[in-house]
Amino acid sequence: MSFFSRIFKIGQSEIHSTLDKFEDPIKLTEQGIRDLKKDLQDAMTSLAEVKAISIRTRRDADNKKKLAADYERKAMILLQQAQGGALDMADAERLAAEALSKKEQQANDALRVSTEADRHEKMANQLQANVNKIKSTISTYENDLITLKARAKTASSTKKINQQLAKIDSSGTIAMLEKMKAKVEEDESLAIAYADIATPDKTIDDEINSALKAGKTSTVSTDLLELKKKMGIL
What we know:
The chain is mostly helical. 88% of the residues lie in helices and 0% in strands. It is built from five helices and no strands. The protein starts with a helix and ends with a helix.
């Protein structure tokens, strides 16, 4: 799968209005990010290799420039020594010419290698731009994925709640409560009835005691009437 195909696939997952068309947009996005990270690793490896070549080539070009300058310096020294009588002028000029020839060769090589170094540096800069773009894309899609996961979780929870609410039968629930209420009232009535049945019949002693208690109450009532008369209330 090409890089641009993956970009297109991930881009599709960002289109909120078409999320439902995907079988699993989160998994597709995660796979796209993994693919991008692999591309990033490959791009960084290539970048390191091209930069290394660029560094070596530039260093080679600089060395050749230094050699060219050194040959020119040696040619000048030879001529100066001949001029001072330290060397035969003819030999000095011959050696100086050889030195200048090597200087020209090194200068030409330095120019060629320097051009190669420029090309490698340009390639390294392009790769660096691609690496930066992939890094930025990964960061963007990772942030979008966090948002997408949160939205998916919220949507799933909302969907479950709405499904549960849709299943609730209010009329059936009310009918069930009414049945329970009737059953409770029936049980309570039966409990009272059984309590009355369980109460033992009064014995003769109970009736005698009850009559005596009634008589005592009457005595108390008589006393109360006498007290009221005494106080002038009656």
